[in-house]
Amino acid sequence: MQSLVSHLAADGHEVEVLGDLTGSVCDYPDSAYAVASLVSAGGAERGILICGTGIGMCIAANKVKGIRAALALDELSAQLSRTHNDANVLCLSADLIGQILVRRIVDTWVRTPFDGGRHERRLAKIAKIENGQAPNA
After folding, report:
1. Which of 13, 67, 76, 94 counts the highest number of beta carbons within 10 A?
2. How far is it, in rounded angstroms, from Cα 101 to Cα 14?
3. Angle at CA of residue 120, ends 117 and 123, nearest 5°
4. Is the pTM of this model over 0.85?
């Protein structure tokens, strides 16, 4: 995935790598926590996590307060994760999708703004759940 880092940097994005890019076996919760914590604390606007399926990374990242991690396997899910959910962490599969599709998904995700409007109300409800409250309270 070093090629993705180079691609993002060439597109003008500041990239900080917090994990291993060699594809070696690792404990994905460690990387998910590192990236999600950085985003949650405001040290990065957004983060991208990649593991075999992307599922484990997504579950782990969403445990960090303020994180809205989304698994995207295509460009439409990447777009909707931004427009509707203001996802601040993108989770991807290294095993299920190829590098060309990964790049297209990432490009879509980084270029898509949050729509706001009715979706802001829903994000406020998600924040209530995150704080242990009922969403309709």
Report:
1. 67
2. 21
3. 155
4. yes
